[in-house]
Amino acid sequence: MRILGSLFVAVAILMATGAAAAQQAAPAAAAPAASAAQDMSPVANPVSGFVKAGVARYEKNMVAAAEAMPAEKYVFKPSPEMNSFGHLMMHIAQTNNTVCAKISGQTAPDVKIAETDSKDKLVAAMKDSFAFCTAALAKVDDSKLGEQFMFFGNRPISRGGALVALGGSWTDHYATQAIYLRLNGILPPTAQPAKKD
Predict the structure, then answer these.
(1) Considering only CA atoms, which of 137, 130, 12, 131 is closest in space to residue 62?
(2) Most distant CA atoms of the chain, gap in Å
(3) Second label for 75, Cα 20 to 30 Å away, from 13, 113, 122, 145?
(4) Handedness of CA 129, 115, 172, 57 (dihedral sign)
(5) pLDDT at 102
(6) How far apart are CA 59 and CA 22, in angstroms?
């Protein structure tokens, strides 16, 4: 499973690299105007601010991916030893609740879900977990990034490290959702053609 996780991360990095290369290939005439309009002043709370800004984007894409998969395909596994799509949705909700609670010092919601639950219940749990993250992270800033706490058992981690891990988990989980969708002939939300006005 670690190899598969690493593969998904590698795919996500390659996709991001490809997008960056495509952006760099834009006409040079457009570059000066775009860069002149950018505010390049120092950013307050660069770590926590970056992660908090990502909550809405990942919620939108990950919930849309969960909704795009037909209910009967929540049992889909790319191979017998892999997790089902339903397990992935359960895992995303549980990870959000656990990690956002740890980072903020709050108590995680006591949510009872199983990978065999209905699509509606798993999608609702995922939405609720992103709502919890939004609320839990609202008062988090960069002033305590070096503080440590126990993370997943008896492993210490800094608050800054946990924020980075949370952002990384969203990237990894969305990449995994996208692969499961594509294996079922469904375009992931970020691959959908732009809607015409």
Answers:
(1) 130
(2) 54
(3) 13
(4) negative
(5) 95
(6) 25
Nearest by Cα to 169 from 111, 121, 99: 99
Q: Are 84 and 77 in contact (CB under 8 A)?
A: yes
Give the amino acid at 60: K
The tokens 């798993």 sit on which residue?
122
CA distance 86 to 103: 26
Q: Tokens standing for 170?
A: 């969203």
Q: Tell me the pLDDT of the chain (197 aa) as tens digits.
A: 444 444 344 434 334 433 333 333 334 444 445 556 888 999 899 999 999 999 999 999 999 999 999 999 999 999 999 999 999 999 999 999 999 999 999 999 999 999 999 999 999 999 999 999 999 999 999 999 999 999 888 899 999 999 999 999 999 999 999 999 999 999 999 999 988 86
Do 131 and 56 form a contact (C-beta atoms < 8 A)? no
CB 88, CB 177: distance < 8 Å: yes
The closest of 57, 91, 80 to 177, measured between CA atoms, is: 91
Query: pTM value?
Result: 0.79
Strands (E) located in the chain? 148-151, 155-158
User: 100 CB contacts (<8 Å, ≥6 apart)?
Assistant: 106, 108, 129, 132, 133, 136, 137, 166
CB 84 within 8 A of CB 69: no
